[in-house]
Amino acid sequence: MNSSIAKYTVKTILLILVLSFVVDKLVFYTFNHISDRVFTGQSIGKLNHYLQIKDEVDFVVYGSSRANHNVDPLEISESSFNMGKDGMKLAYSAALVKLLDNKKQQTVLLHIDPENAFAKDYDGSDIQSLTSKYNRSKVIKSEIDALGQNNILQNYYWSLGYNGKTLGIIKNYLKPNYNYKTYSGYDPIYVTENQRKIFKEILKKGKTEEVCQSDFVMNPVYAKYLNDLSVFCRDHNKTLILFTSPKYEDYCPDDNIQLSEEIKQMDLRYYDLTNYFNENNNLEFWKDKTHLSHKGAELFTKKISALIGSNN
């Protein structure tokens, strides 16, 4: 009797596993079908848009919100796109750069942050934002695996890559937020009067107490990606330019100095523009201490354009 029950249990478990794999693949291919038609929104739309035009444009901006909101690519090149995304760091951007075609001459403008470069705990986990493409792109899969940021179960249950993105995908599938064909990827910040009042109150409180490192050792993940990108861009007909966006106040200038020195040793082109607005720190140029308003972004973009144009 016990033997019969055991056999029945094993068969049931195997049947459940088979059914779960089948259901998973049905869900995966269903969401592929839906998501591939989504080109708006942060869940997957902007990424799909980028994948569609990445080998057509001449100039691409990468980085965090300090790239997304601060650089208008169309003011630099009519054939351009801003692939900056809020909350992202170097691993996310580097993986996207490595998807570029190896034949077309392109300029890659990549935002980097000194504090991230020397952060001891940076592990590249921001690359998990690309998990929806894990089982669809060899490059993305390889990058995620190399960092150990993969979910082992995703090798079997492919639909896991859509976790946390389904509502955004469906929403933008049914009702797109904008006409993506006229979208350059740049999201300017239009500051309201209330936001400006809040910022003024923050500034009245004075400088925030911040602990600055006394020793600077570049995070190994960060260093590896900078070196990888240097080699990739050299071998794939790309011009790599690194930059750091302005801050209203920089409490820890030493990491900027150290990063500039290390990047110089890597023989990479880098513009540290952290203090760009120091001589003209008009509040109208800022949303907060690390993000520019649309007015500040306009001026900053002109500076970037001049730097790139004068060195090409």
Q: Report on the biggest sheet.
A: 5 strands, parallel
**What do we call the CATH topology of one domain?**
Rossmann fold
CATH superfamily of one domain: SGNH hydrolase
| Global outline | globular
Please count the beta strands (DSSP E, at least 2 residues each): 5
Rg (CA only): 22 Å
Strand order of the largest sheet: 2-1-3-4-5
Mean pLDDT across all amino acids: 92
Sketch the topology as an H/E string, one letter per element. HHEHEHEHHHHHEHEH
Beta fraction: 5-15%
SS summary, helix count: 11
Alpha carbon gap, first and last residue = 81 Å
Verbal overview:
The protein contains eleven helices and five strands, in the order ααβαβαβαααααβαβα. A five-stranded parallel beta sheet has the order 2-1-3-4-5. The chain is α/β, with parallel strands linked by helices and 312 residues long. The chain has helices at 2-35, 41-53, 65-68, 90-97, 114-117, 138-146, 166-174, 193-204, 220-235, 253-265, 294-311, and strands at 59-62, 80-82, 106-111, 238-244, 269-272. The chain starts with a helix and ends with a helix. It has a domain at 59-127 and 185-311: 3-Layer(aba) Sandwich (Rossmann fold).
Keywords:
45% helix; globular; Rossmann fold; single chain; 312 residues; 11 helices; five-stranded parallel sheet; alpha/beta
What can be said about this structure in brief?
By secondary structure, the chain is α/β, with parallel strands linked by helices. 45% of the residues lie in helices and 8% in strands.
Please render the helix and strand layout as text.
Layout: H1 2-35, H2 41-53, E1 59-62, H3 65-68, E2 80-82, H4 90-97, E3 106-111, H5 114-117, H6 138-146, H7 166-174, H8 193-204, H9 220-235, E4 238-244, H10 253-265, E5 269-272, H11 294-311
Parallel strand pairs: 1-2, 1-3, 3-4, 4-5
